[in-house]
Amino acid sequence: xxxxxxxxxxxxxxxxxxxxxxxxxxxxxxxxxxxxxxxxxxxxxxxxxxxxxxxxxxxxxxxxxxxxxxxxxxxxxxxxxxxxxxxxxxxxxxxxxxxxxxxxxxxxxxxxxxxxxxxxxxxxxxxxxxxxxxxxxxxxxxxxxxxxxxxxxxxxxxxxxxxxxxxxxxxxxxxxxxxxxxxxxxxxxxxxxxxxxxxxxxxxxxxxxxxxxxxxxxxxxxxxxxxxxxxxxxxxxxxxxxxxxxxxxxxxxxxxxxxxxxxxxxxxxxxxx
Amino acid sequence: xxxxxxxxxxxxxxxxxxxxxxxxxxxxxxxxxxxxxxxxxxxxxxxxxxxxxxxxxxxxxxxxxxxxxxxxxxxxxxxxxxxxxxxxxxxxxxxxxxxxxxxxxxxxxxxxxxxxxxxxxxxxxxxxxxxxxxxxxxxxxxxxxxxxxxxxxxxxxxxxxxxxxxxxxxxxxxxxxxxxxxxxxxxxxxxxxxxxxxxxxxxxxxxxxxxxxxxxxxxxxxxxxxxxxxxxxxxxxxxxxxxxxxxxxxxxxxxxxxxxxxxxxxxxxxxxxxxxxxxxxxxxxxxxxxxxxxxx
Lengths: 273, 296
Ligand SMILES: Nc1ncnc2c1ncn2[C@@H]1O[C@H](COP(=O)(O)OP(=O)(O)O)[C@@H](O)[C@H]1O
Ligand SMILES: [Mg+2]
Description:
Chain A: GO terms for molecular function: ATP binding; ATP hydrolysis activity; branched-chain amino acid transmembrane transporter activity. Chain A: InterPro entries: AAA+_ATPase (IPR003593), ABC_transporter-like_ATP-bd (IPR003439), ABC_transporter-like_CS (IPR017871), BCAA_Transport_ATP-bd_LivF (IPR052156), P-loop_NTPase (IPR027417). Chain A: Residues 1-25 are annotated as: Disordered. Chain A: Residues 27-268 form the ABC transporter domain. The structure holds 2 protein chains of 2 kinds. Chain A is 34% helix and 24% strand. By secondary structure, chain A is an alpha/beta fold. Chain A folds into 2 domains: 23-108 and 189-273, 3-Layer(aba) Sandwich (Rossmann fold); 113-186, no CATH class. In chain A, β7, α7 and β8 (220-225) form a beta-alpha-beta unit. Chain A is globular and about 45 Å long. By secondary structure, chain B is mostly helical. Chain B is built from 11 helices and 2 strands, in the order ααααββααααααα. A two-stranded antiparallel sheet of chain B has the order 1-2. The longest helix of chain B has 31 residues, at 2-32. Chains A and B meet through α2, α3 and α6 of A and α6 and α7 of B. The structure holds adenosine-5'-diphosphate and magnesium ion. Adenosine-5'-diphosphate binds next to β2 and α1 of chain A.
């Protein structure tokens, strides 16, 4: 797959942590409609693109459908009795039909779910090992060791706690672990679902730095946030979901200056009023 | 003193047979949230195959076929019956396994009738003297093989990719799926392993001094079940401790009733439930069970 096999002599992944093999590709969501059961249409005619090497923010208030969009990309809708009823999701030349999380990870698309969801009863190290289980070339050169080195490089704090049970980490450390766990699969596109949720401002700042660094290492990022200030500062491009539809979209800089986003998501209206 | 040693060896042998079956319960429960009530029929199936095959292809080959075929049968139950159903409907799936159990046991009971089948094990009724007591070689084989097999299962659980996947999926299905872990494959493998363990248990359960395989042999599962529950249901070490506890208790009860025929009768039969109820009264989550790990 990806022509990895054809290059047995390929050099190990570089220290910088760039994913081996193919670089990022474009994620295209086109005319997507998602339903839960028969009654709830959570997304309707949603289109967006995460260009290769880009950072895209997806904003929207609670219940807008942000998480649903990530589930459609990652293929976990079925766990919620949901499904794609119209439209397509493609990553590069692969079609992701919303029902196969294994295929998404193999394609290089890895999600960090909302609320961290680390394996609380397992150690930090086991969490990271689990993150590497779905990687395509698991046993190839570098493998887990190289991925782990990258993660510990980004999160030295985790390196000090390898044997500790993940459930005993602080909220910020758990978020780091959740991101680190996803990086173990060498994603080409990282999907982050509200990584700043419930974290202290300093920790939010730290997470933002890490996202910037991961991006600089060659991974594209789709960042879902309610914290629009943080997301717009990181992203090149942003979309705003409003009850299942794309309301606004445009370059992040432009959006952060727009009145509507300012009023709705940056809390400026509240401050001004 | 000799009687105590005798009872202890009996209890350990019995406990390790329970442990093989109870581990199967725990593994399936962790992988799919289902209490597999068909475990007893799996055991009977594996034992029956070994019994009818050993005269033709030899004991070891017959045992191998019995173990593998039972693994396949268990995997098939998962793939064919449970897979299409909503995995979150645990109670429905659990009841379905009762149906599977009845089907398989009915057919096997029809074939076995009133017979007592030998599985053709090489130990026969040999005994050895050990510290002043005579111990059937089959009991020693039972303990040794169980220790090796259970040790291997524990190691796989802790270190193998399958074990890690299973533990991850048991904690959080969605998060595990997001790691690209193939949940349904991991689950089917868990069923296969539980089936294989049950078939192996059939061998030691029916070896001397037990009379052989009968159509009711699968009911042993009803004793391994409390062992798994008192161990916490999701904890393999808990299942082991629970099984040994119940095995020894049962041997004690049987021993002091001077009814040492086979694997205990009379009071020995209720002992597992007495132990389970006592433990659960003191520790509602079982010996090594935990409440869900609290997430911050
Ligand atoms: N499992 C589900 N079953 C039914 N409706 C759901 C389910 N999950 C989410 N929804 C609905 O879909 C809509 C979008 O939810 P979600 O994607 O979680 O939004 P967000 O992540 O933006 O807060 C909401 O109206 C929500 O109630
Ligand atoms: Mg959400």
